[in-house]
Amino acid sequence: MLHKNLKPFPQTFLWGASTSAYQVEGANLIDGKGPSCQDVKQVPEGTSDLTVCADHYHRYKEDIALMAEMGFKAYRFSISWSRILPEGTGDVNPKGIEFYNNLINECLSHNIQPIITMFHFDMPAKLDERGSWSNRESVDWFVNFARILFENYGDRVKYWLTINEQNVLTLSGPVIGTLHIPEGCTNELKEIYQQNHHMLVAQAKAMALCHELLPDAKIGPAPNISLVYPASCKPEDVQAAQNFNALRNWLYLDMSVYGVYNNLVWAYLEEHDACPEFMPGDEEALKSGHPDFIGFNYYNTATVAASDGTEISDVHADQQNAQGIAGLYRAFRNPNLPKTEFGWEIDPMGFRATIREMYSRYRLPMIVTENGLGAYDKLTEDGKVHDSYRIKYLRDHIEQVQLAITDGCEMLGYCPWSALDLISTHEGMVKRYGFIYVDRDEFDLKTLDRYRKDSFYWYKKVIASNGSDL
Ligand code: BG6
Predict the structure, then answer these.
(1) Are 226 and 165 in contact (CB under 8 A)?
(2) Residues in the active site (predicted)?
(3) Is the pTM of this model over 0.95?
(4) CB burial class (10 A; 0-12, 13-18, 19+) of residue 219?
(5) Is the ipTM of this complex over 0.85?
(6) What DSSP line would sit under 353-396, residue for residue?
(7) CA 159 to CA 75: how far, in whole Å?
(8) Which terminus of the chain faces fewer neighbouring Cβ atoms within 10 Å, N or C?
(9) Which of 162, 178, 319 to mutate to test the pocket of ligand 1 (most atoms within 8 A of CB)?
């Protein structure tokens, strides 16, 4: 739809950016923090471990000051579960509580709203040993952790996100080092969707608890949503797109918003004898969640064609590159879209299409919790990073958010990935996303000094003009 007049971004729009604890903090085994599954996993060859990351744990004041200089209204970060509860359950680590108190207070002192992700790919290692999400007790573990967060930080934190990219955990867990398949498992699909079910119940219970304890706070999920296009107008391709849309996107939002399983996904699971088992009370718990908004990560769309029956399950694909699933869909390279240096397609118009589709399905306000471009940035000798490619990516995407607002979609904020450079999920330090450059290499920690990239100055101008000067 062409609009003659664009609607402005709301005055209260939450401009900011995102990080996650295990990718940015470092200090992964100090001040009482227990290891998480990320600390004990096999680090991909040639990439750094997580002992230092961007050293945000020690430099958060400097980092928040830089965010304030850009004019951030919000900072989305995650809380490391094993920093708060070193064993995942049991004793609380006072130093962990203190660190996030300091981080939250530092944000607030600069008028930056903290948006807290409660779980971002970092199950405490002790709970991983006990089966992680495959263990039914994981529901109680998570709700207990959520209660501790609400009780300690709920007086100051107004925006909460439950589980980052639960759909990626379920569809590509091994790539990000998280999916736990118990030895001797005979039906992997059933096992995966049982774990998914536990996360869904845990999320719904955490949302209900948030509303009970913190009536003024807002809480929502944070899946990775990519609208799926059909490769052609062949009816078979359109159905394949519906299949993958259901499996990748709508399963998660239908459940968080309406508390019901998407019927296409359920039918697929039935076919494979893989439906999750419900425990007494699950049905009611799932219906009791009710998010106040939808947080979602968007990097690009996906395109699929009809399955030819030979595809293999895609748990080893990464977040944005699906392979296909026999009988459901086959991945298709969209010839209309350019790709990043790391092979992810770039589709700003697909961002608007994704937002429109979500709004028409769920009618809830939305916060973009990730969006961004991973690239090999270069620090020049005079301390600059000329990342015009990132500015272009972000500008093109913000334009589409404004078009979606003009279409009538309700948008609360935009927090791209990432506030500062940090360790990628599976491609190490070389894949940078930040507005703030962190001076380190994969293995050489160098100075860890911060540098303002060109995108830093550009984003500052965007925020100062409330999105009117792109
Ligand atoms: C999202 C994750 O999938 O994408 C982040 O929530 C991640 O944790 C981001 O870092 C970018 O992915 P990657 O693999 O390039 O780090």
Answers:
(1) no
(2) 370 (nucleophile)
(3) yes
(4) buried
(5) yes
(6) HHHHHHHHHH---EEEEE----B-----TTS----HHHHHHHHH
(7) 10
(8) N
(9) 319
